Amino acid sequence: MNAIRSALLAVLAVLPAIATPGAEPPTAQPPDLAETATIYWQQHREGWFWYRDPPPPTARPAPKAPATPARPRELADFEAMQQRLETLKRVAVMNPTDDNLMAYMRFQRMVMDRSQVFADRWQRLVWRDPSLDYASEGRPTNTLAIAAFDERQRDRDTAAVRQLAATHGLVFVFRSDCPFCHRFAPVLKRFAQTHGLTVLAVSLDGGSLPEYPDARPDNGIAARLNARAVPALYLTQPSRREFRPVGFSLMSDTDLLERIAALAREADPAGLPNLLRTTP
Questions:
Q1: Which of 105, 121, 171, 249 is the most buried (most CB within 10 A)?
Q2: Is a pLDDT exceeding 50 seen at residue 272?
Q3: How far is it, in rounded angstroms, from Cα 173 to Cα 218?
Q4: Looking at the DSSP assignment, which residues form a beta bridge with residue 234?
Q5: How far apart are the first and last CA of the chain?
Q6: What element of type H or E holds 243?
Q7: By the 8 A CB rule, do 277 and 238 touch?
Q8: ∠5-9-15 over CA atoms, to 5°?
């Protein structure tokens, strides 16, 4: 409001100088004829029939090119070393005399020594700064550390799958004449019992498996799930009628744990990404 008020006051202050209501405009005086004629004859050379050269263009200074940063000396040395090594190699290949081969081998050894120094300094920096060590944040490389990492990861995956079992189940699509289905069925049943998961078995040919004698015949759900290969396993959330594929092959206990745990970590109350929605 203060800004608007100030602007209005400024406009009101200028208006009287521009035009005063009721004031008579000044009367224009007629020009002197003699003065007009004199001005005309003095300016006749500027008429349309006289050519006037345009003013010379004003020279503009050329824009300055951006300063190029100085090239590191190490970069030139590195390129020279690469070129020297490649030249010695080509000479030795085309003319493999003892002298040519010796020259190439000695120079290559010097390059390898430099590479070893680089690798050693790199490793020392990694030891000093844990943030540079990928093994400290990801999967370790040490044998003892790998065992501890895998054990901890397995415990986390097991807890995630057991928590998922309260709201999710598995749909197992198979054929009774499929040898891979017969091998996979006991693995799946043992895994489901260990982690508290419910398995719904669906038979494409109406047959059954020893581990799932009460399998349901396919009522079209296999086609809606796009189960083109068997054994096929899906993770489902019945309350939302959502299905996500776990795998389409013979899987081990470790495979099942890793895949289902990965799906469990992606679970979100707002919705599951990359989800295949269908209504059985």
A1: 171
A2: no
A3: 9
A4: 171, 245
A5: 65
A6: strand 242-247
A7: no
A8: 145
User: Whole-angstrom Cα distance, residue 263 to residue 256?
Assistant: 11
Q: Which two tokens stand for residue 13?
A: 């202050």
Largest separation between any pair of C-alpha atoms in the chain = 128
Task: Tell me the per-residue pLDDT of 147-198, one tens digit each, with 9 for 90 and over.
Answer: 888 888 888 899 989 988 888 999 999 999 999 999 999 999 999 999 999 9
- Residue 111, H or E segment: helix 98-128
* Euclidean distance between CA atoms 261 and 200, whole angstroms: 19
Pairing of β 232-237 and β 216-217: unpaired
Number of other residues whose CB lies within 10 A of the CB of residue 117: 10
DSSP secondary structure letters along 121-143: HHHHHHHH-GGG-GGGTSS--SH
Q: Which of 93, 123, 125 is nearest to 108 (CA)?
A: 93
- For tokens 């490649």, the residue is 86
Average pLDDT of the segment spanning 116-131? 88
Average pLDDT of span 94-101: 96
Residue 191 or residue 137, greater confidence:
191
Residue with tokens 């986390």: 156
With a CB cutoff of 8 Å and minimum separation 6, the contacts of 126 are: 132, 133
CB contact at 8 A, 197 and 238: no
Q: Token pair for residue 128?
A: 């000093």
Rg (CA), the chain: 44
Using CA atoms, how far apart are residues 178 and 197, in angstroms rounded to an integer? 23
Distance from chain centroid for Cα 254: 29
ω into 186 cis (within 30 of 0): no
- Location of structure tokens 């044998």: 143
Strand duo 199-203 + 216-217: pairing: parallel
Decide: 234 and 246 in contact? Cβ < 8 Å.
yes
